[in-house]
Structures are given as C-alpha cells and as structure tokens.
TrEMBL record:
It comes from Flavobacterium celericrescens. InterPro entries: Motility-assoc_prot_GldC (IPR019854). It comes from the Bacteria. The gene is gldC. This is Gliding motility protein GldC. Pfam families: GldC-like.
C-alpha cells in the first residue's frame, strides 16, 4: 500500500498557546510551510461523530480569521456538492457564505 504523510508541527509558548504552525506534505511539494490557523476534521465512523482540531497562532489577525472562515465555508460548500451531488443544499450553503461575507464586510 502506498502512503502519503501530512505532518503538522505546533510550536507553543510558555503557556502552551500556539505561536507557530508548520506543515509538510512532501507529495504536494510543501516543506515546513508556515500557517497562522488550521481546522482539521476527522470522521469517526464507529462513533458517528466528527473529531476536530482547531488551532490558530496568537498573532493571527482577526480580519484574517474572518477571511479564513469565509474561504473555509465556501470550500466546504464545494466539497459537499462533490461528495453528495446535492446541488440545492450546496447552493443554500453558498447563499449563507455570501451572507457571512456581507455581515463581516468581506466583499466590496
């Protein structure tokens, strides 16, 4: 079986607050790239629940966090459509993304 590793390194300050996030995905040509935030969701099919790791560095600006969430929500709508072929709900999710962007002053 072929495998591909994705590695996430979290640097912590003296209070165990993330101050550096680095990730590596060698198959994708990514080597120790810095990130300011990450959301990781894993489906536990036995328990029928989502397990999550949500991290951001202490210097992640709030305006960038808003953009990060908006872009993540848009990507989730796209992924949902590809995974389920449910165009109606995907469009509804995109409508919410537009609403979110408007309320967060993300669109010109």
């Amino acid at each position: 079986m072929k495998k591909s590793d994705i590695k996430i390194t979290v640097g912590l300050d003296e209070n165990n607050v993330p101050d550096k996030l680095l990730w590596t995905a060698q198959d994708g040509g990514i080597e120790q790239e810095e990130a300011k935030a990450m959301l990781l969701s894993v489906w536990d099919s036995k328990a029928k629940e989502t397990l999550r790791i949500d991290l951001w560095t202490k210097d992640m600006p709030v305006d960038e966090m808003k953009q990060f969430f908006h872009q993540t929500l848009v990507a989730m709508a796209d992924t949902f459509q590809r995974a389920t072929a449910d165009e109606k709900m995907s469009d509804t999710m995109r409508d919410f993304c537009d609403y979110f962007a408007e309320k967060m002053d993300l669109k010109a």
